[in-house]
Amino acid sequence: MNDETHDDAPSSANGGDDPHQVAPLMASSQQDVDRWNAEWLQYLSREWERQLTPYTQIPDRPPLPRDPAGLLELSLGPGWSLALYCDADALEGKRVMELGCGCGNLGKQLGRYVQTYLGVDFSTMALQIARLVSPPNCSYVHVGDAKGLAPYREQIDTVVGRYFWIHQNFELGRQNLAFLESFLAPGGRIYADFFWPDEDAEHFVVLKPGDSLSKAYPSAMFQYSSEDVRRLVADHPFRVVSETVSKRMERRYVILEKL
User: Fold this and answer.
1) Cα–Cα distance measured from residue 59 to residue 49, given in angstroms and rounded to the nearest whole number
2) Please, is 31 exposed, middle or buried when counting C-beta atoms within 10 Å of its C-beta (0-12, 13-18, 19+)?
3) pLDDT of 186-215, one tens digit each?
């Protein structure tokens, strides 16, 4: 979901005066859907076995570590490292949401710990796969489906993400915050993974948060300092709870809390 969004979605998805409608900035056109379906089809050509494995074939349920960094290496089976920074208390028995969920690779693993799991994405194909491989307490809704998303407004305790915020510049990041704000309950938290490279980041294309998205490098990383994070959340009802820099993961893990 690291591409521009469009305002020309069908009127049934974002029109009218319904206060619980999907934010117009997150509306998507058929062009968006087709583009992301094609992206996922290409990705599945390389990762089909892992992405299509149903939750029933991942039987492990190890206890979640108390240290949020401990989830980065937690494995639920061969090749199934969570690669997620999050507090166990923010997952266990909680209502969890993921923006940019793809084929539900994270949802089908966390489904055994959470109360409910909501995955949102642009790709209708990825969402359909996610529904087929995830446990019953996981739901997947298209980002432009206002009716389908309405029941989740102000109901989410925790928003998780991995490999997501690293690709968001200020413009997209602010759109994401405005979108997620309407789903989080007061006191709900966002666990964000911003890119913070080590001294040698020549193997990445690194941009500043104020830069525009690059069509030449669609997977470029946006490097966020502490000041950048605060600029991102300014004018949004969130406070920064904590920041943790991981040199090994090249990440600035930030916990945001809805006021």
Assistant:
1) 17
2) exposed
3) 999 999 999 998 776 566 789 999 999 887
What is the identity of the amino acid at 70? G
Q: Are the CB atoms for 180 and 258 separated by under 8 Å?
A: no
In the block, which residue shows the tokens 């938290």?
189
Helical spans, DSSP H, in the chain: 11-14, 30-52, 107-110, 124-133, 146-149, 170-181, 226-233
| Predicted local confidence at residue 26, as pLDDT | 63
Pairing status of strand 221-222 against strand 184-195 = unpaired
Q: What is the tens place of the pLDDT at every residue in 114-130?
A: 999 999 999 999 999 99
pLDDT computed for residue 37 by the predictor:
87
Q: What pTM does this model have?
A: 0.87
With tokens 């642009």, the residue in question is 122
Torsion angle, alpha carbons of 39, 41, 45, 48, to 10: 110
Query: Rounded to whole angstroms, what are the CA distances from 103 to 30, 187, 222, 248?
Result: 19, 28, 24, 27
